[in-house]
Amino acid sequence: MSEIVHNGPGSADEAGTDSAVAILRPRTSGTEKVLRIVVPVSMLVAAVIAWHLAVVLNNIPKYILPAPYDVVLSLWNDWPTLLPALLVTLRITFTALILALVGGVAMAIILVQSKWIELALFPYAVILQVTPVIAIAPLLLIYVPDTQAVLLIIAFLVAFFPILSNMVAGLKSVDHNLLNLYDLYGASRWQTLLYLKLPASLPYFMAGLRIAGGLALIAAVVAEFAAGTAGQGSGLAFRLLESQYRLNIPRLFAALLLLTGTGIAIFGLTSFIAWLGLHRWHESAIKREN
Amino acid sequence: MTDITLAEPRTAPTTTQPVVSMRNVSKVFSNGTLALKDMSLDVGRGEFLSLLGPSGCGKSTALRIIAGLGAPSSGSIAWPTSKINSRGLPEGDVGFVFQEPTLMPWQTVFGNVHLPLRLEGMNKTAARPRIMESLASVGLADFAGAYPRELSGGMKMRVSIARALVTKPKLLLMDEPFAALDEITRQKLNDDVLRLWKQTGVTVIFVTHSVFESAYLSSRIVVMRARPGQVFSDLSLQHTGDRDSEYRTSEEYRATTEKVSHALHEAIHAGGGTH
Question: A67-285 is classed in which CATH architecture?
């Protein structure tokens, strides 16, 4: 009895159907989820304990290296001084970032309209980028009477370029077949920009946003150092310098802590915005599985 | 030039007017390559015409010129039965399927199929019945909310076909649409395209380099030669009975592929091309 056994009916047909692809959401296991939080947090706690022990065991004076406890205490006690300074720095950072976003995207759209516009204008964008912007602060201080405006201009100039260059790259790297498709259906320039070029350059925009977010904060601080603001209405950079002059090192650390926190918050916020915009469709936001 | 074996350009012996008519179309690319030379072709209503030829014979170029993507260097394209818009193209009468699915990854399947109608100014609500009808015709009604990355290669191609059909075009242009797919998926999509062609009565111009694909699908095969790209021979195919898996193993299909294969072989040797 030796009969050739065929596969059951239908199995050959099913091999040809590609319409039954199940899409399962990848799941990380419960243990991994917990570890993802536990590992970095315990590492942080360990670092703080090590810091504390180093200070206590070596009897390091407060004006050289304060213990973590002193920093927290200073943060609490000097909050009335530090909060207004933080708000000033935040205001400059976010105003500069928003202006850079609007300006960078608008400029990129203008640049890609024709190669002649790009030839005429792009060199200036590059000059702006390669010149250490902080070096023009003394000049700006002469031309612009308001110090806060100078800080804003510098932070804007620094944050502007990453947005611009990323957006130009994004607007130019649209799939040619998709451009052909839009042509085929007689899409207007406006429709092509709105429905195709802008969405296609979203990943580039998000990359620019994350870079610009961090740079805007750095620029806001550095510009304040350069401008030498003082007294009321100054930002965290001034409080840093002031604490240094007065050898109030715990407060210097507290101000530093606030800046770091702000930086992390900006990074988190821009990453979240990028995730919101991309997680459904872009490779950068999708977990790779092999 | 050995033009002896060149077929006479088909000059529409039928009484009905052709859907599209190419007259002495030549195309020279900016690098000096002569992609097409004096190509004339009339495509009749309801035909399933395959452009078959070796690579470099200008079949894709011809298709793109018909679609209005890149103007011919000389010669003319006429649309005797269509209303012509300001850009010299038939108003909403052409659908195009590229070699790649060419879907927008940020749009759902629904959004991608909506695109041609959206560009005409039709909003989602108004377009929904037509989009769903088009998706249903390629068997993807359940996937309207999925993103392209969640689909297999064959499914992406179906979305691309649904998008091309959503405007109910008179003429469907397909540029080696299934070349990148595996054999099984390809056969299935061939059957789908054939079914849609029969159901809708759309005229199809299908670019391929596969003898078997063209012999299976076409009512007419135009074989092209390379360097310069020209029509080499023009074969009309009569299919008796249904084309299905049975047909793929039939004597009739074998004879057809032999004939087509022979014509292609001659075209390759007539062209000065490499192969």
Answer: Orthogonal Bundle (1.10)
